[in-house]
């Protein structure tokens, strides 16, 4: 965790100075080994004359975080809406968040379907039409099919104004060779949401969870990391804290919305993993 | 691991039948909740009328793997060349593979630089000019800067003919907001390699390793998964086996080359993670 990393950082001033000196601003395009000043010092016999790779791009001292990144807000009092809450992913998330004690309202185009699904899920979950779900919620998770993503959000612009929106949609196509990413014109589903909802606080998260594992009442803990993306740190921290309410889960900040497409698209790779290994693959980040 | 997943699969015939019935071919574009037949049955109180999500897209029975996906070839006798072996990533990989007992030749534009770096790394690593490195190797890892990717590979087409090429280049750009993916015209660095090397067997792997951790002689094990992409299963299995030679590492098949861009691009997110948490983040796949 952070402490470990900091201790290591202190133990290896070479990397840290490389990081400080080689702050992002100083780098140019060029990929994994491209850009960056000639300052990294390898340990042991591994002296290197070459440039630091991306792993050495650390926060500059000037921009060093003023707070522990694991110090997250208390979100237990927030009401979470789940648009597409009658689908497998939305339903599974609603179930887990409600189990964790969160107040959850699932939304659907048809209020009746939402009510039925909410009754099935139990644990105090309520159902409502999408508009009411959005209006009554503090945080609104978007778990609708990619097909209906733009249409659904475009119609809820007013209800979602001022809300913290969490997009977890993965735009994918399928053919005989399996799954492949669809790149939305806006860059990603999350960026499409941000474009359609200028008055909302849009983040992206919960892309890599197995609806099957989420829904399985025999499973108490889901050991996985939730990559949380967004432009505003406070908003991302709320989503990270929400993810952390689910036993085994951890919310990890993983970049700005312009880096959402690859996070959404990675599901195509997880599908390949599932098919080869008969698994329900998820992601964990190491050394964090 | 696989056994766990298979047992669970047997325990939940609902998913399996959903998978078999909903084989990839039967799906249409539409993203995480889009496409797919209406067959998934949820466990417990979670009956669902909705469609299976991507986590339920399993190998169809007809296409079920005939072998244990963890049954990988013995690669201990193969010589591994590392183009860009004087850079941090290539150097770190060469060091770890040599430590594991692999015969390694690092390549550089200048033979002398390669010889110097090889001497510094030790453990029997040899150095050579890129062309000789390619010619003398069975497996050739491409760890050059993205800037020089096309130029380097284009010049080695003859030497790389028939070789197993492992591309681990991450095309990234950097600006004040951090890192962002660069999308090559061919779709990814790996697909560019495949286009430039029609007579080679091109795979992609080793994208998410920390050069810093690879190079640190105080670190014995690097607990991470190496996502291996490619078109030919036998070629991917050689790369998976190579990754598995490094203590703590596991090579996992993660899709075709057309799904390489998001794997390469995910490094932009790992950079954000590293900066926020002061880490050297890597990836592990859960439930696999």
Explain what the structure shows:
2 copies of one chain form a homodimer. The first copy, chain A, has helices at 2-11, 13-21, 88-99, 111-121, 130-136, 146-154, 189-196, 211-215, 233-244, 261-277, and strands spanning 79-83, 103-108, 126-129, 139-142, 164-167, 172-175, 178-181, 201-204, 224-230, 249-253, 282-286. In chain A, α6 (146-154) packs parallel to α7. In chain A, the strands form 2 sheets. The first copy, chain A, has an 8-stranded mixed β-sheet. The first copy, chain A, has 2 domains: 3-60, no CATH class; 79-277, 3-Layer(aba) Sandwich (Rossmann fold), CATH 3.40.50. Helices cover 35% and strands 18% of the residues of chain A. Chains A and B meet through α1, α3, α6, β6 and β7 of A and α1, α3, α6, β6 and β7 of B. β11 (282-286) of chain A pairs antiparallel with β11 of chain B.
């Amino acid at each position: 965790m952070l402490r470990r990393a900091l201790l290591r950082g202190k133990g290896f001033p070479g990397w840290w100075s490389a990081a400080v000196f080689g702050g992002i601003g100083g780098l140019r395009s060029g990929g994994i080994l491209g850009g960056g000043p000639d300052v990294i010092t390898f340990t042991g016999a591994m002296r290197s004359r070459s440039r630091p790779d991306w792993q050495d791009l650390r926060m500059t001292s000037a921009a060093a975080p003023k707070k522990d990144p694991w110090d997250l807000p208390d979100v237990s009092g927030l009401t979470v809406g789940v648009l597409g809450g009658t689908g497998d992913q939305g339903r599974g998330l609603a179930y887990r968040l409600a189990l964790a004690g969160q107040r959850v309202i699932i939304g659907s185009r048809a209020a009746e379907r939402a009510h039925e699904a909410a009754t099935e899920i139990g644990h105090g979950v309520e159902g409502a039409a999408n508009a009411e779900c959005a209006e009554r919620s503090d945080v609104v998770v978007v778990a609708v099919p990619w097909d209906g993503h733009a249409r659904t959000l475009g119609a809820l612009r007013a209800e979602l104004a001022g809300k913290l929106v969490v997009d977890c949609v993965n735009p994918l196509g399928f053919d005989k060779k399996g799954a492949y990413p669809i790149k939305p014109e806006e860059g990603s589903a999350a960026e499409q949401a941000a474009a359609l909802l200028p008055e909302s606080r849009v983040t992206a998260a919960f892309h890599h969870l197995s609806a099957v594992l989420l829904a399985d009442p025999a499973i108490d803990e889901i050991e996985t990391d939730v990559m949380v993306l967004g432009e505003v740190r406070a908003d991302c921290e709320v989503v990270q804290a929400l993810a952390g309410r689910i036993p085994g889960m951890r919310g990890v900040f993983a970049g700005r919305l312009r880096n959402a497409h690859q996070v959404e698209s990675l599901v195509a790779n997880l599908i390949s993993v599932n098919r080869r290994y008969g698994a329900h693959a998820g992601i964990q980040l190491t050394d964090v």
